[in-house]
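Researcher: Please predict.
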Amino acid sequence: MRKENEELRSTGVIGTGEKIFQVVALFILTLLSLAAILPFVLLIVSSFTDEATLFTNGYSFFPEKWSTFAYKYLFITNLGSILRSYGITIFVTAVGTAISLVISPMLAYPLSRRDYPRAKKVTFYVVFTMLFNGGLVPSYMMWTQVFNMRNNIAALIFPTLLLNGFNIILLVNNFRNNIHPALIEAAKIDGAGEFYIYGKIVLPLSLPIQATIGLMTGIGYWNDWTNGLYYITDANKYSLQQLLNTIMTNIQALSQMTTVSVTEKMPSASIRMAMAVIGVLPILVLYPFFQKYFVKGIALGGVKE
């Protein structure tokens, strides 16, 4: 068989096939990459396009007339609110992600231990939360009346995003597949306790999946606007996404007034694109630094024996 492959290589058959495969694969990956990148490019270009041009010619990568009016409107008339909401969103994202990375592995690690007698029962509760929930009204009553989180920054951190069942399952599978029980037994023989094993062995060996969980949780916090919509009515405590949503709502209300010319005074289309750029830009900047951990963590945590 080896001699046949060598003969084929010498004749150039396998080499030609490999080259064709590489060209086709490169072409397909290039198309997929363009499909992912071009929408963001169009988003940015549209945010710098004149409103009248958008209404006349539609969205284009090469607009006839450029304009920065949308960004001027956002950063001149709403600069203080945007900076404050940026600070709140950064704080909520950092604190919520940090707390999630503390409590999620602490729950997942015992469930990954095959010698834990209640692992199946607790895992059932975790999976159950992925399929069913109490509904919006009971959740609102619980967080506002029991925990008193109305108009509180904590309302942007604790509901819905702090502990996610999907993240727990990824962590459990990662711990089971990548931390051999013999390693834990060896540590116990050497006199190590459970907290020492967890802090010095388990956590350092699970950095890729923790980076993945942190990235997904952080993106969830950054893009979240529903918690602010439900629990925050004080404009001084708006998150970035909630503030942008409020600005867009106000613009739509103004555009319905007959005394206001939308195309001349209120660039609703371009300002919508500008708000999307403001909201997504930090994620686009940070994502490349976490991409390798994200891919590796998903691969390690998504495989089950």
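Model: The mean pLDDT is 80.
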